[in-house]
Amino acid sequence: MGYTARVMFPLRDSIPSSKPPVINVVIIVACVVAFFYELMLGRYLEPFLRAYAFVPARFFYPEAFDVSFAFNLWTIVFSMFLHGGWLHLIGNMWFLWVFGDNVEDALGHGRFLVFYVLCGAAAAFAQALVSPLSQVPMIGASGAIAGVLGAYFVWFPWSRVKTLVFLGFFMTMAELPAPIFLVLWFVIQFFSGTLSLAAAGGAGGGVAWFAHIGGFVAGALLAWWLRRSGRVRPVPRYFTFWE
Questions:
Q1: What is the pLDDT of residues 126-173, one digit of tens each?
Q2: How many alpha carbons fall within 13 Å on the CB side of residue 151?
Q3: What is the CATH topology of the domain spanning 2-228?
Q4: What are the contacts of 66-75 at 24+ separation with CB within 8 A?
């Protein structure tokens, strides 16, 4: 999940899932397969991404690119399964593996997939609003995964996260309450996004910080609404402490 993984990296959480995280695994496998397909494209990768990845300017000004609204929606979903390199892929998939199983547990398989796609769409839209003229293709699952983190924050405040913390040249292990880990994660995204916006006007490439912010907020709000409406009732379970 971008710069966050160079500051703190989750190893696992303390809540075991009660059911196999089928959709979580399917998403991870789909992202890995899509990445190997990208590798096979070689010199054709850049035109492939420009044609089929989500492009903010093409979304807001479809007539200039001669594309339909339906095509733009399709590229939002398609872009969630594409990645820009091994570290991008591995970081995203590991965050999804650590936090996604419990969110899928609470939602059920079908609703988890819908939730994931909705959060990814909200994330793409948030980034596009910041840089509506950008023609840089947006790819990656991190916006959708940020929505999963937002739901985890709302539904599992009693959880703990075993975390690698990087302090300059030193590294230590810490067992953080999940809300603290996720608040720190969000703060990093917010300040990184603000600094990148000030430095580049929001139009350049790099990490889509506001997609992370938008995805997290969308996931947290959806999770709050689902719990408040009684559609989801996460059950507190005893968690494991590590030695």
A1: 999 998 999 999 999 999 999 999 999 999 999 999 999 887 778 899
A2: 32
A3: Rhomboid-like fold (1.20.1540)
A4: 73/121
For tokens 């293709």, the residue is 137
State the greatest distance between any 2 C-alpha atoms of the chain, in Å, as a whole number. Answer: 59
3 state SS of 54 = strand
Cβ 218 vs Cβ 123: under 8 Å? yes
**Prediction pTM value:** 0.91
- Starting at the edge strand found earlier in the chain, the sheet holding 8-13 runs 8-13, 160-167, 170-177
And the tokens for 133? 């003229």
**Tokens 């980034």 correspond to what residue?**
127
How many angstroms separate the CA atoms of 89 and 100, rounded? Answer: 15
Beta bridge partners of 167: 170
Domain ranges of the chain: 2-228
* pLDDT score at 203: 47
